[in-house]
Structure to design on (598 residues):
């Protein structure tokens, strides 16, 4: 039995449509509405202990999906099941085994130390004293929060607040955690800390993690499975390797630095992209010339100081996909 | 149940600690409350000097306000402000994913404000008034018990009316003017600024039909002994009737709200 299940789920929003040509008078007395489909016929299921990256461009429908899973929004059609229950009707029941972090919101008591919010949540989530202590100490240790635990929340930096919020959401040992952009606006070190933390807690406590993010670093490092949506439609659902395999560009870039000023390489397989001083960038195609051959060719025919190969990462793939506004609708 | 009471206590104690971090607030609150008392006393002394008060005494009127203030701090604020802010900022999304109901959180939040206000407003006013002006005690232990019961019923009435009106936030997004109406209606028909004793008959008749007098006026009448015997029980029955009607209405509208609730932002 999967922990989270979405079957043909769609969600429509009603949006006020303002027509430029209509007068404000007509607008006022007879407003027109349009339906906007935020999530369009999505199905997937997630088992206990999975770590899933939920990605898509801005406005693709990620947050809407999370809101449906937490029971804040009801789907327009389709079925959402979490712990085999309807999340909308069992919101308070599900809350006890679920954690949410919305990256731009804070649950912390603004004027009090972080410690106090922890105490409050202990009572709210009915956590036993012993369990609470152990879990709190572990979280404090893992997220490196010892030195700001007694500081008022308003004096904390964004990174510290984010870590505190994250710890708060794991305090009651939830079975499922939804993270909506947990690393937004954070520096590299804090991001690393958070990623390491998520990996560890997923392994040790078997917490299911569903996270949305725009940071490809997050995806590459922690998400074993990827679900990609765009314009409300599901584009891909499967593991990370498969994703790269499927959408990988057959093209790659070779960055060649010559020892002396040189004319561009004359070979129909090498497409010059840019040149800056002695460094030239060429675009090549895997199917026509493999990387090894290309390097050998350049190195043996020219006096070369340095060669670098750039394969396209998830970021490049995503950039291209969002750009094209791709609507290929094949899954699994 | 015990869990809920514990949580309720925890929320209130946290808010008090939160409030206590701003010490100047406390002093400013106490001083302004005492000024209000002085102004009110001066006003009523002047009004009673005109000799048009009928059978009401100055001491009764001052007691009405000073003791009534303990009641009013529990009703003084509106849920609309909190709900409106939660709705606008989208924090409502966080609050409804917690394991206790949204209404419970609203009530606990409201009551934490009330506890603070009781300590920084009602208590200093009461002490100052008791020492300087003289306050009437309740007419008897039995009357005091009925007074407490009437306050609880009045609280339920106010709670429901406030919720029903506050739900309009979900349709209006902006709320402040609704709040103004709400406050004006409570002041006019609840007799919280001018006791209903002084109203012309036709206005008093309207106020008697509406539920707002249960909030503060009716309990204070019981406290002062102006309402006794069968009249008290008639008031209780009327209050219970209103609670029933308002509760049904509240549940109905809340169902509509839940249906409509599309969380903004994010």
């Amino acid at each position: 039995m999967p922990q989270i299940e979405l079957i043909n789920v769609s969600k429509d929003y009603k949006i006020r449509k303002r027509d430029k040509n209509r007068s404000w008078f007509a607008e006022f007395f007879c407003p027109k509405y349009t339906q906007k489909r935020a999530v369009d016929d999505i199905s997937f299921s997630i088992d206990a202990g999975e770590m899933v990256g939920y990605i898509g461009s801005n406005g693709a429908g990620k947050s809407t999906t999370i809101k449906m899973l937490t029971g804040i929004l009801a789907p327009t059609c389709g079925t959402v099941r979490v712990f085999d229950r309807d999340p909308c009707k069992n919101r308070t029941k599900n809350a006890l085994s679920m954690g949410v972090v919305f990256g731009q919101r804070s649950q912390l008591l603004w004027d009090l130390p972080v410690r106090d919010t922890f105490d409050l949540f202990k009572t709210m989530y009915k956590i036993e004293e012993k369990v609470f202590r152990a879990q709190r100490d572990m979280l404090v240790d893992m997220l490196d929060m010892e030195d700001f635990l007694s500081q008022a929340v308003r004096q904390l930096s964004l990174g510290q607040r984010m870590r505190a919020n994250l710890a708060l959401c794991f305090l009651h040992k939830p079975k499922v955690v939804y993270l909506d952009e947990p690393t937004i606006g954070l520096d590299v070190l804090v991001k690393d800390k958070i990623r390491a933390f998520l990996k560890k807690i997923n392994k040790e406590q078997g917490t299911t993690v569903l996270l949305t993010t725009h940071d490809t670093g997050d995806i590459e490092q922690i998400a074993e499975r990827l679900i990609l949506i765009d314009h409300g439609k599901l584009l891909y659902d499967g593991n990370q390797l498969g994703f790269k395999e499927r959408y990988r560009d057959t093209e790659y870039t070779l960055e060649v630095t010559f020892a002396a000023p040189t004319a561009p390489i004359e070979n129909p397989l090498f497409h010059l992209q840019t040149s800056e001083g002695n460094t030239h960038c060429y675009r090549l195609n895997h199917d026509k010339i493999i990387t090894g051959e290309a390097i050998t060719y350049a190195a043996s025919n020219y006096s070369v100081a340095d060669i670098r190969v750039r394969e396209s990462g998830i970021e490049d793939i995503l950039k291209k996909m969002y750009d094209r506004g791709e609507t290929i609708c094949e899954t699994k | 149940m015990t869990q809920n009471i514990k949580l309720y206590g925890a929320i209130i104690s946290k808010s008090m600690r939160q409030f206590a971090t701003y010490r100047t607030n406390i002093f400013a609150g106490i001083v302004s409350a005492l000024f209000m008392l002085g102004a009110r006393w001066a006003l009523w002394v002047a009004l009673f000097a005109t000799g048009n008060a009928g059978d009401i005494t100055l001491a009764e009127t001052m007691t009405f306000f000073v003791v009534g203030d303990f009641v009013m701090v529990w009703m003084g604020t509106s849920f609309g402000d909190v709900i409106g802010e939660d709705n606008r900022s989208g924090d409502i999304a966080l609050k409804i994913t917690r394991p206790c109901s949204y209404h419970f959180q609203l009530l606990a939040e409201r009551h934490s404000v009330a506890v603070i206000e009781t300590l920084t407003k009602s208590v200093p006013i009461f002490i100052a008034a008791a020492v300087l002006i003289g306050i009437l005690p309740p007419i008897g232990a039995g009357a005091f018990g009925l007074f407490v019961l009437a306050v609880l019923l009045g609280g339920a009435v106010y709670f429901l009316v406030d919720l029903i009106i506050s739900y309009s936030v979900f349709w209006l997004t902006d709320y402040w003017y609704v709040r103004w109406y709400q406050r004006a209606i409570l002041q006019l028909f609840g007799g919280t600024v001018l006791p209903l004793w002084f109203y012309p008959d036709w206005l008093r008749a309207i106020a008697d039909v509406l539920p707002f007098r249960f909030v503060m006026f009716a309990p204070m009448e019981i406290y002062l002994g102006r309402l006794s015997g069968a009249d008290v029980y008639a008031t209780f029955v009327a209050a219970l009737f209103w609670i029933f009607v308002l509760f049904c209405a509240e549940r109905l509208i809340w169902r509509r709200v839940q249906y409509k609730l599309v969380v903004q932002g994010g």
